[in-house]
Amino acid sequence: MKENLVKTRLRNNQPVLGVLSNSADPTVAELCGFSGLDFYMIDGEHSPVTTAQVQDIVRACEVSGITPLARVRSSDPKLILQFLDAGVMGIMLPGVKTAAEVESFVQAVRYPPQGNRGFAPVRSVEYLLGEMNQGDYVAFANEQILILPQIEDREAVDNLDELLTVEGIDGFVIGPRDLAMSMGYYDGPGHDEVRKTIGGVVERIRKAGLVVGTTAATGDQARALVDRGVLFCLNSFAGMLKWAASDFMKGRQ
């Protein structure tokens, strides 16, 4: 396992920008890396990506110098384990609502004594053929893995004070669209009440000394978020392509 450069930047209070991608093609991850983005998040929730494909996507990330992360489809510890064993360096878990769920998430991601993650001579540990012994690797992995529960439900907002007390997490990522849906706004997060709620969540997470993340559709939006203290900004790969294509097509107007 290599140093998690995204986590290092966040610890130094530096912003990181990347994409959430539902593509199973490693070339997409490679292109994102060579384009200079900080992280490539495999979307294991809203996509057909299988755990068998994750390993090749992670390899493409490593070749192009981008940090591989993943959003998993459930809190199943065995599913999370497969992503981590393939070399993913951070996990985002959608739909958390209670402190107990966040605690279980942390337990699944970290090795003992901080968690319950199982150990095997797999890719993430260089198949036990690298320079680290098992003890050194376990300590290093626990330090380097990025743990980001996702807030996208009104119940999670109501329970936020409890969520913020869970040890072992690095921060929270806010999902504006699903949060708006849970608040009864089915046409999107542009309503004043949703914006006010998200603003309050951002401030509470920051005051707790944790990383705040959310979506940004453009560079200007990302800059505005960073100015508010949101250090983890992600766009969808499709959204980034659409924005770039629209900008390019101005050439024929």
Question: How would you summarize what this structure contains?
Answer:
The chain is α/β, with parallel strands linked by helices.
Number of domains: 1
DSSP summary: helix tally: 12
The secondary-structure element order is HEHEHEHEHHEHHEHHEHEH
By secondary-structure content and strand pairing, the structural class works out as: alpha/beta
End-to-end distance: 49 Å
Largest beta sheet: strand ordering: 1-2-3-4-5-6-7-8
Quaternary: single chain
What is the top-level CATH class?
Alpha Beta
Average pLDDT metric: 96
Q: What is the 3D form?
A: globular
Bin the strand percentage: 15-25%
Number of strands: 8
**CATH fold-level assignment:** TIM Barrel
Family: Belongs to the HpcH/HpaI aldolase family.
Domain HpcH/HpaI aldolase/citrate lyase: 19-240
GO cellular component, one term: cytoplasm
InterPro entries: Aldolase/citrate-lyase_domain, HpcH-HpaI_aldolase, Pyrv/PenolPyrv_kinase-like_dom, Pyrv_kinase-like_dom_sf
